[in-house]
Write a structure and sequence with these properties.
By secondary structure, this protein is an alpha/beta fold. Helix content is 33%, strand content 19%. It has a nine-stranded mixed beta sheet. The chain has a two-stranded antiparallel ribbon with strand order 5-6. Helix 8 packs parallel to helix 9.
């Protein structure tokens, strides 16, 4: 394979397309195949879609030990996953996992992460028994921004076994009033979270899922501006795609955000960060 690096500028100028065979330095760092309960995407289709867009792909299958659904929903078998997908590993295809962080399952989550993954994303999908996707989306239960962010801070203050803090804006996908989570309304707790990320070398993700909406862009911008002010240097960029068409979704907006605040996009390979050229 040709290992010539491709710059971000040339990737964007070409419409995000490249001939396969060029060493891909832009990765969608957060995607889910059919091994994740909420996705039906075949790995081959995801890889094909990424290559058609001239980017690499990192599968990050779900492992949520505190998921309220019966086992094995949202609890990928890490050993079986790696065995089945090892054949796909390539310069532009990496394998990771997304751990649903939980105070009640700290050791179990550490054990799940301790395999031959390229990257481990730590995400807050639930707060003390309230599942954000099912409970907030359906209105069965509720949490407020303070509860969500305080729980995130508590988790970040534990021993860190993951590389990336996933989608800090996750609840804003589902709540009726996403403005409740705005930085200016919660600046103290956001600042504590961002300080911890800088201190512990946790790379926050720019999740591009909502960035097609200008309002969402404005909601997220102050968070990454403050992270940079505190000394943060790096971000990952991931679409959280669960189907082939969303791979690389809103990447131009995500890279624009990173550039605006002087942040360098990275991806992880063998648990080591790699800066995009």
């Amino acid at each position: 394979m040709n290992t010539e690096a491709r710059t971000l500028e040339s990737w964007l100028d070409s419409g995000g397309r490249a001939d396969y065979g060029v060493r891909i330095m832009v990765f969608d760092t957060h995607t889910h195949s059919k091994l994740s309960t909420d996705s039906k995407m075949n790995a081959e289709d995801g890889i094909r879609a990424a290559r058609n867009k001239g980017i690499g792909i990192i599968f990050t299958e779900h492992y949520d030990a505190d998921c309220p659904h019966p086992f094995p929903e949202f609890r990928v078998d890490g050993a079986a996953y790696l065995k089945a997908y090892e054949k796909y590993r390539a310069a532009d295809v990496l394998l990771g996992i997304e751990i649903g962080l939980s105070m009640d399952f700290l050791q179990e989550n550490k054990d799940a992460a301790a395999r031959d993954f390229d990257v481990v994303i730590g995400s807050v999908h639930s707060v003390r028994g309230v599942d954000i996707y099912t409970d907030l989306n359906g209105g069965a239960k509720s949490i407020n921004a303070g509860e969500y962010l305080t729980y995130m801070k508590e988790l970040l203050n534990q021993d860190i076994f993951f590389d990336v803090l996933g989608h800090i804006d996750y609840p804003q996908r589902y709540v009726e009033n996403p403005e409740e989570y705005d930085y200016l309304k919660n600046s103290d707790i956001y600042d504590e979270i961002l300080h911890i990320c800088v201190k512990k070398h946790i790379v926050p993700e720019i999740n591009s899922k909502r960035l097609g909406d200008d309002k969402a862009f404005r909601q997220l911008a102050p968070i990454y501006a403050k992270y940079r002010e505190f000394g943060g240097l790096f971000v990952t960029i991931g679409s959280d795609a669960h189907n082939p068409k969303n791979i690389g979704l809103n990447f131009k907006e995500a890279f624009d955000m990173a550039r605006t605040f002087g942040l360098s996009p990275v991806y992880f390979e063998k648990r080591k960060s790699c800066t995009i050229d």
